[in-house]
Write a structure and sequence with these properties.
mainly alpha; ADP-ribosylglycohydrolase fold; 386 residues
Length: 386
């Protein structure tokens, strides 16, 4: 079990590292990254640029080596399994809402809108006249969004919206893959993982493309842990197509993640074309998640995870999210304590402490080495002011 524990730690470190290293370059084009780095691209952790020059306003206040929403939400997802070992939908809803009010930076509009709907539903049910507003908002824009949304019951799926097809589910899905992989991958064989992930996805994203893209990433992590990365590469497309067949009636358009993934994998031997494809959609699940998987597949035989993560950043676009997904998948490839370079880990604001602690606790709980830490939904609600 010790080896599985270290692999889980490597996955969580991959999320933190990809996120932190990608934050300074988020939404920059590949050419802008080359210009900013003297033409060499990102070859190591680089936090020596003026934070005020970052393209994402939320990220300008982040310290060197700090992480953003990718890590924050992956950590919240992991905590749900650490508390319960199984998937408890309302527990994950409340943990996401708790993360929302500690908003680190970079949260997507679809995720925020969906969670504001849930927050409003809980606040609407407090005793007293009218809806009790949250204590504070990060920006005036957030306050206006909260005021505009309609309350939604936590058991109901997110409301469909045009252009709401981001990577907000895939970026936080790795703990599902860790849990299944540590248990031997049986949840993916039985179909239980698919249904849990789709329910989890619909908490914030109605489009099934978002859930199926996340399912692909989680499956790669699970298969890499339970078997090996080559097996994961062989299975991923079949898993995606099977998931699409099961959820075919939920699709509202003709786009399918399997088509996007097939295109990305076909471009894997032409990296610049692949990068153009992946960066074009900014944060769209059809492009960024497919890009992350294609980059991971290109680096299966590498002796270390660094080239894959650096490629994810140098491709441009949603650099922190793509790099965190690539980092998670590459992390699942090894049980070595030395898999991630020590100088990379030291570059994190917390020195990797949170990733190591979360990965270890998650592996221990899922491998039945320790009891779940427990939870009380009413206590969580009170803590949130509900």
């Amino acid at each position: 079990m010790y080896d599985l524990k270290q692999t889980a730690i490597n996955v969580m470190l991959g999320i933190h590292l990809g996120d932190a290293l990608g934050v300074p370059f988020e939404m920059m084009t590949r050419q802008e990254i080359l210009n900013a780095t003297g033409g060499e691209g990102v070859t190591r952790p680089r936090f020596d640029f003026d934070p005020a020059a970052r393209k994402i306003p939320d990220a300008r206040g982040l310290a060197a080596g700090a992480t953003s929403d990718d890590t924050q939400l992956a950590e919240a997802t992991a905590e749900g399994f650490i508390m319960s070992r199984r998937y408890v939908h309302e527990l994950h809803v409340l943990l996401h809402l708790e993360a929302l009010w500690r908003d680190a930076a970079g949260w997507g509009g679809t995720t925020k809108r969906s969670l504001y709907e849930l927050d409003k539903w809980y606040r609407e049910r407090r005793r007293g006249f009218g809806i009790h507003p949250p204590p504070s908002f990060r920006t005036e824009k957030d306050e206006k969004l909260w005021a505009a949304v309609e309350p939604r019951h936590p058991a109901h799926p997110a409301r469909p919206r045009a252009q709401a097809r981001g990577n907000g589910v895939a970026m936080k899905i790795a703990p599902f893959g860790i849990r299944a992989g540590v248990l031997g991958g049986g949840d993916f064989e039985s179909g239980e993982a698919l249904e849990e992930i789709m329910a989890f996805a619909r908490m914030t994203h109605a489009d099934p493309v978002c859930g199926i893209a996340a399912y692909a990433v989680a499956g790669i992590i699970s298969d890499s842990i339970a078997d090996d990365p080559d097996v994961a590469a062989e299975r991923v497309m079949g898993r995606v197509k099977a998931a699409e067949a099961i959820h075919v009636l939920a699709h509202r358009g003709t786009d399918r993640f399997s088509d996007a993934l097939g295109r990305a994998l076909a471009l894997a031997s032409a990296p610049e074309a692949l990068w153009d494809f992946g960066a074009a959609g900014r944060a769209d699940a059809l492009t960024t998640v497919a890009l992350a998987i294609a980059i991971w597949s290109r680096h299966l035989a590498d002796a270390g995870p660094q080239p894959a993560v650096l490629e994810a950043i140098n491709a441009g676009g949603d650099t922190d999210t793509v790099a965190s997904m690539v980092g998670a998948m590459m992390g699942a490839s090894s049980e070595s304590k030395a898999w991630w370079p020590s100088d990379w880990i030291a570059s994190l604001k917390d020195g990797g402490i949170v990733a190591v602690r979360t990965g270890g606790r998650l592996a221990d709980v899922c491998a039945l080495r320790r009891a779940p830490e427990g939870y009380d939904l009413d206590t969580l609600k009170r803590r949130l002011g509900y």
